[in-house]
Amino acid sequence: MPFERIKFYQTGSFAAGNRLLPEDLRSVQSSPARSNTLTCGHRACQGCGEALGARYALDAAMRATKGKLIAVNATGCLEVFSTPFPETSWQIAWLHSLFGNAPAVASGVGAALKAMGRTDIRVVAQGGDGGTVDIGMACLSGMFERNDDVLYICYDNQAYMNTGVQRSGATPSAARTATTPAVGPEPGNTFGQGKNVPFIAMAHEIPYVATATVADLRDLEYKVTRAMDFHGARYLHILVPCPLGWGSSPADTIKVARLATESGLFPVFEAEGGEVVAASPIRHRVPVTDYLRLQTRYAHLFRPEERTEVIARIQASADRNIARFGLLGNQETDHPERIRLTPALQYDSPGEG
Amino acid sequence: MLKQIEGSRAVAEAVATCRPQVICAYPITPQTHIVEALGALVKKEELNAVFMNVESEFAAMSAVIGASAAGARAYTATASQGLLYMSEAVYNAAGLGLPVVMTVANRAIGAPINIWNDHSDAMSQRDAGWIQLYAETNQEAADLHIQAFRIAEELSNPVMVCMDGFLLTHASERVDLPGQEQVDGFLPPYEPRQVLDPQDPVSIGAMVGPEAFTEVRFLAAERMRQALELIPAVAADFAGQFGRPGGGLVRPYRTEDAELIVVALGSVLGTIQDAVDELRDDGIRAGALGITTFRPFPAQAVRETLDGGHRLRRLVVIERALAPGSGGIVTADVRGAISAPDGRPPHPADTIISTVVAGLGGRAVTRKSLRAMLTSAARGDLPPFSFLDLRQDLVESELARIRAARRSGPSAENILRHLSVTGIG
Question: Is residue A125 part of a domain?
Fold first, then answer.
């Protein structure tokens, strides 16, 4: 019988997609049996991209490991909003030690599991951009270099949000933060060289490196699942908009994340053994201004007058990403195959009986 | 088994018999020989453990935190700058109540950089929440590690075993190393109080605010109170099983009728005991009090030793670390122990306490100097605060230089230049 291939192409939410899919291709999040690793009741802000990203990522990791997972958390928003005493939102064995040591703590957990013959249990470490690209960099690099069996996930919201939106090494050029205020002749963050941690991870030639955003649930779940296929050090860098710090509407978190990729500012790709093996093509290319205008951290680029030179520099960096990763691909802008579908794995998670 | 063996090697072999499952290390003099020996034992598969070479001391302590929380017996070793670099994680391990054992091969803290022995490093972490044990000999260093794992795991609190860098770590002495069966009989397998278990998930390291932080800290104080009871009990059990003393809270030496008592920690106690014997020969009723457990501070045991019914007149506290601006760290604790315990007036009321800073950055504490200093203490000539064997000429010439010119330059370099010009040292 002839059939018509359905193209999943949505500009809004991906939630509807599951209804159109066979059951075994539905997302982890759509499953009532998902582990809800980060469950409800936590204290994240409305529209928090990090809360969303952490739930997506860890639920996928829990499914991939059949619930045999231990999480190590760096200090930061995620740690603070999830565990205000005497409550915890974590339905997973979870350890928080310090701000800058999550990769090393996770390595230690992995070493213990190895010593105890429990390598069936896997380890994930997670932190924000401050805990990853700045204060945790040495421990992260050490974990990579030793190729310890840890998946490290960076939830990148591009500043120290937990302490009140101060600049981090991941804060983009021209963005306003509490320590790069929008005052003076060159308002906002300086144009530095950036610190591209996915590239730094690739330079260690670890088995798997990928980027993702909360705008693409399936891609994110695929990458976590894929990461769990590998042993050794793995790195996943997830862009998670922060309404508070970015000055975007809580309702626009997914939209802002999508525009970050569609503009080319945040390339979504994966790499194995230090080589890029895939990049998600841009489907509807947009100018960076579409992305910037939604965020008050860039308001000074548009008021009182448009700072065209600064915007041009930001556009140039987006263009560079597009060229570097071939993000316009073969111009098949509506192809669904990049929306990777991962068959659901059968497993019983703890607590599901 | 009796061996003529280097202190570091003896400690490594003692630690190995404790069956650590994860060993983490970052090299720093004078700790290196310990972790090198352990690494070799793991590599030769004589010790079934995971040996992690990490990128810093901060990572070393962090990794043993993770390993301990995952249910493994975990060990690391460091010294000096390394201990300071891991300091944040040192506090964290104690705050989390993880029974990690760490050797500190005591060494000075820079600047000026100095690789030789004093107690500046461990003293800087005295309030981190770790139990601190100080070894007098290499035999005791080995024995303390075996006791340390048991104390740590019974209390779920980390233990730091301090041994003097070079003086102990690099000294070859006769050490009786226990066999595996003996240690297995003394140290049961690790049963964690809290563990990361996917089958029974808990959150370890949650945030605690004003509503309960005080209570969590109270429990840390309570663990230390329990440690004061447990440490002597473990030492007694050790003595019973291994047939030799070691560990415990304090070690008095000829204190029963003493009118002059020297208080000290670590390997300097051997020299002090020799000096005490000489003073006794001179007719001075001297004694020594070694403090084996510095944290928790055994105030009652110190008080009882110094208050033995005799009339103690003079107390000399040897400080192997300087607390600039306050003087002596050990002195403060000793003074607290004998002053107004339980609201009673100080006893003996007229005890004179002198602080003597000695053996900084590897300067030898000789029997001759000790004897001269203690003789002067017995005469009543010792000032309340002094440095043993201070080169007064060097200090005065540098002070003069500082007075003479605004840009007097770096003092350490000036003093070294002065030494080479005068051809001394």
Answer: yes
Q: Is it the case that residue A12 has pLDDT exceeding 50?
A: no
CATH classification of the domain holding A275: 3.40.50.970
CB contact at 8 A, B261 and B312: yes
Within 8 A of B206 by CB-CB distance, chain A residues are 83-85, 88, 96
User: By the 8 A CB rule, do B28 and B57 touch?
Assistant: yes
Q: State how far the Cα of B28 lies from the Cα of B105, in Å rounded to an integer.
A: 9
- Closest B-chain CA to A112: B67
Is A351 contained in some domain?
Answer: no
Going by the DSSP 8-state scheme, the letter that residue B158 receives in this structure is: -
What mean pLDDT comes out for the span A66-77?
A: 98
CA distance B310 to B120: 33
Q: A286: domain range?
A: 15-325
Q: Exposed, middle or buried: residue B12 (CB in 10 Å: 0-12, 13-18, 19+)?
A: buried
Count of all residues that appear for chain A in the document? 353
The pLDDT value given to residue A243: 98
Radius of gyration of chain A (CA): 20
Which residues touch A139 (CB under 8 Å, ≥6 apart)? A100, A101, A102, A103, A104, B55, B56, B58, B59, B62
**φ, ψ for residue A176, nearest 5 deg:** -85, 135
Do B236 and B298 form a contact (C-beta atoms < 8 A)? Answer: no
The reply to whether residue A112 touches residue B92, judged by beta carbons under 8 angstroms, is no
Question: How far separated are the first and last CA of chain A, in Å rounded?
Answer: 40
Encoded amino acid at B361, one letter: G
Strand-pair partners of A304: none
pLDDT at residue A137 tops 90: yes
Rounded to a whole number, what is the distance in Å from the CA of A326 to chain B's nearest CA? Answer: 36
Which burial class, exposed, middle or buried, applies to B209 when counting CB atoms under 10 A from its CB (0-12, 13-18, 19+)? exposed
Note whether residue A330 is domain-resident: no
* Domains by residue range for chain B, with CATH: 2-242 (3.40.50.970), 250-387 (3.40.50.920), 394-422 (no CATH)
Q: Which of B377, B366, B169 is nearest to B271 (CA)?
A: B366
| 3-state DSSP assignment of residue B379 | helix
Cα gap A178→A166, rounded to integer Å: 5
pLDDT of residue B163: 98
Please indicate whether, in this complex, the C-beta atoms of B207 and A83 are within 8 angstroms of each other: yes
Q: What is the pLDDT of residues B166-177, one digit of tens each?
A: 999 999 999 999
